[in-house]
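lol ok so funny story. i was supposed to be doing the assay writeup but got distracted and ended up predicting the structure for this chain instead. priorities right. anyway since i did it might as well share w the group, maybe its usefull for someone
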Amino acid sequence: MNMEELKKIIQAIVISNAGCPMTILQLDRDFKCHEGYNIPYEKYGFQKLDAMLRSMSDAVQTKGQGSSALVLPVITAKSKHIREMVVKHKKNGKKRHAELSGCTVKKGKFEPSERPRANTRDDVVISTAKQNVQIRSANKSNNVVDTSCSLWTS
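and the output, tada:
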């Protein structure tokens, strides 16, 4: 993977965070979740990840120091519409997902509701790392909706 491909992946992860700045540590965890390995900053001659991210000023901005520094996307004309779609989807997605799956979210935990909606089928698959959750739901019209998210435990 060359530096330009790496920039695109990092920018996509940061954009997909929908309006919430993420820390460098969270970015590295999300990258590992998606790619299977940590961001390879040493391969590109950097001693620290935050130094590499600061060199990617055309893709991301960093504010602060160390692994707790915040990472924000650089919004270009090309990526602006993607960012808007992600933000819109994330705002509407939580409510719609709960409605389709018969689950409610309380304090970061998934708890089944007392009476799930009729004609709702769910298949939940949790990876061995217990970080990725995939939910497949079918609503009353039998339209299948796939949702996936990352869960981080402390």
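Residues 94-130 have pLDDT under 50 and may be disordered. Residues 77-101 form the longest helix (25 residues).
back to the writeup now i swear
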